[in-house]
Amino acid sequence: MWGEPVPAGVLTSTAQLNPPPEPLGVFDVLPDRVPEGWATDGRTTALALSVALSNRRGVPVPWPLVSRAVTEARNAGLITVDTEGVSWPCSSFESDKVHLIISTNPPPPRTPPPGGRLRTERVLKPAQIQNFAEIVGELVQTLQPLSPAIHVAVEIDTRNQGLDAGTEAKVNALLTMVDGSWKVDAKGRT
Description:
Blueprint lengths: L42 E3 H12 L5 H13 L3 E5 L14 E5 L23 H18 L21 H14 L12
Antiparallel strand pairs: 1-3, 2-3
Helix pairs in contact: 1-2
């Protein structure tokens, strides 16, 4: 289990505590990364995909991790999610009713924001953030005549577990090392 409440009776003296699972990116749920999870017609179920990801890793991949990656792939326009009377996201027990289909149409280009500004955004893994840090100087220099602005957001999923005061304090200490006024407030204000 990960990112889910632990039901009574599950935590016993023989239970093992494991490190957090490796993250799943938006492309990690697509057929080129996990072909055994997809039929040749570009279709699968969320359950079949979850089983294939677990088999590939050799350990069970927690459902919240799979669900989040599928949602991100859907939001990016890479797949469509078709449900049979269940809402998405759903529980792992309903995942066999969720059909995933590779999108045949790429996502439409985004309309430039008002005022003629273009924007591109990605959800980055830690290694990609380091790569970005290495090129940001050259990027800003290249775009200097166009007044570039770089927006950084830290998004914390608190749907299943709130942000406790100790973690909030540590996160804020780290963020203020970048910018003295950058903080997160667990009550919802940033």
